[in-house]
Amino acid sequence: MRDAYHEELDSIGDGLVEMARLVGSAIGRATTAILDADLKLAEAVIAGDAKVDDLQRDLEARAIALLARQQPVATDLRIVVTSLRMSADLERSGDLAQHVAKLARLRFPETAVPRDLHSTVLEMGQLAQRLMAKAGEVLITKDVDLALQLEQDDDAMDLLHRALFQHLMDDRWQHGIETAVDVTLLGRYYERFADHAVSVAKRVVYLVTGEHADELHQSSGQGDAGEAH
Q: What would the pLDDT profile of 123-151 be if each residue is shown by its tens digit?
């Protein structure tokens, strides 16, 4: 009975890894769709989000069934509850990738992104995909150090997000209000996607250590301060 129970716990973890893989691929393909005005690819990303939703619902049902049947305690309870929260983060990430694809579809056959911003949006899309790939790796390895790195990696996304706004506020902006709204939305989608990847990694830290990532950062900083004295 306990072997079956732990197999079910493992399968929930496998489901999270698959969700991370799917949403990471989705944001990469959505980025290509919006930069290349690729309607077929955009439609594929939009349709593909249903699989992420199905995985999330299945994972949630299995987690709730485990809570009801096994009444897990301590570490196992933390695994189940944290997995539910991570699945919600990943499902929302899939929605954000879908939003990018829907914007590509809305503006087809034109592109929502002006040529002078292509490189910035491409970089945001690639970074979002890398962050989610790293979050997936953290889910597999339970590597706390790698998980804590994601927050630092996310700083690069914040810089790119600010760069978009600098373009929008520039007096030389000549692409009109509609495009400015599109670019503003895109920046927000990528920023939030990255935030969800970081959130998944932070939850793994809590899963492994029982401490929140911010608490580990603080204790590490206090340790450094003590060494300096």
A: 999 999 999 999 999 999 999 999 999 98
> pLDDT (tens digit, 9 = 90+) per residue, 17-54?
999 999 999 999 999 999 999 999 999 999 999 999 99
Asked if pLDDT for residue 220 goes beyond 70, the answer is: no
Residue that is written with structure tokens 């492994």 in the block: 208
Dihedral-angle region of residue 113 (phi above 0 means left; psi in -120 to 50 means alpha; beta otherwise) = beta
Q: What is the pTM of this model?
A: 0.90
CB 20 within 8 Å of CB 92: no
Tell me the C-alpha distance between 72 and 24, whole Å.
31
What confidence category does residue 219 fall into, taking pLDDT thresholds of 50, 70 and 90?
low
Tell me which residue of 201, 188, 79 sits closest to 130, measured CA to CA. Answer: 201
Phi, psi dihedrals of residue 172, rounded to the nearest 5°: -90, 5
Instruction: Name the amino acid, one letter, at 47.
Output: A
SS (H, E, C) the chain: CHHHHHHHHHHHHHHHHHHHHHHHHHHHHHHHHHHHCCHHHHHHHHHHHHHHHHHHHHHHHHHHHHHHHHCCCHHHHHHHHHHHHHHHHHHHHHHHHHHHHHHHHHHCCCCCCCHHHHHHHHHHHHHHHHHHHHHHHHHHHCCHHHHHHHHHHHHHHHHHHHHHHHHHHCCCCCCHHHHHHHHHHHHHHHHHHHHHHHHHHHHHHHHHHCCCHHHHHHHHHHHHHHHHC
- Provide the 10 A C-beta neighbour count for residue 91: 20
